[in-house]
Amino acid sequence: MSEPIEHDTPAREAKMLAEARKAEAEAEYFQAKTHGQRVDNETATALSISAGIAVKRETLKDQWDAASNGRNRAYHFTDNVSTDTVEAAVDVFNRWQRLDVDNQDPYRLIICSPGGSVVSGMKLYSTIKAIAAKRPVITVASGLCASMATIIHQAGSYRIIEPGCSYMIHDVSGEVFGSLTNMQDTMDWLAKLNSALHVCLAEKSHKTVEEIAEMSKRRDSWFMPEDVVEMGFADEIGFATE
Questions:
Q1: How far apart are CA 226 and CA 216, in angstroms?
Q2: Whether 138 contacts 160, CB under 8 Å
Q3: pLDDT-derived band of residue 1, with 50, 70 and 90 as boundaries?
Q4: Fewer beta carbons within 10 Å, N or C terminal of the chain?
């Protein structure tokens, strides 16, 4: 009769313990892997949302830029007529000219100004006049268009005045210094300049140079939009955005 086989109990327990630990480790590994995948998914989702927000912001920025005055070729002249303000305006219009050699889209010059330097203003007048000979330039009197600003307004190929705009013309003014002969020379130059401005106003109007000279003599002549259109200093009453 054979003897019963004795089992190695400690070895078996050790093996079972090792297998249990292995199973536990595998479970922890798969749990960690699952957590990592979830984190990766959440990170990917967050990045996707962030990218979507960035695209939306860029789209809104592009839309905002596309609606800008510069992109739509509208320049608002809302200051005194001076060397600095005229240089800034001339620079912008010249840049547009260089950029737009392949199209004939109209430019808009919206003027809200009390006037200022005649010499500087004539530079802007000449610039707009030259551009208007090549493409449509709409000049718009808005709010206030007075003194030298009215001359600039005349440079457009089409002239608009907005409802309620105050429009004023008058003779040139200036200071005279020096000797009697120097002052007389300056007065003669101012008289010629004054006559040149009357010609600018009369060119497209229904008034003669002599009538404009009389209207401007020794006073400020103020007009409302209906009067301005009637006299031919504007082609219509309208708005800059039309």
A1: 19
A2: yes
A3: low
A4: N
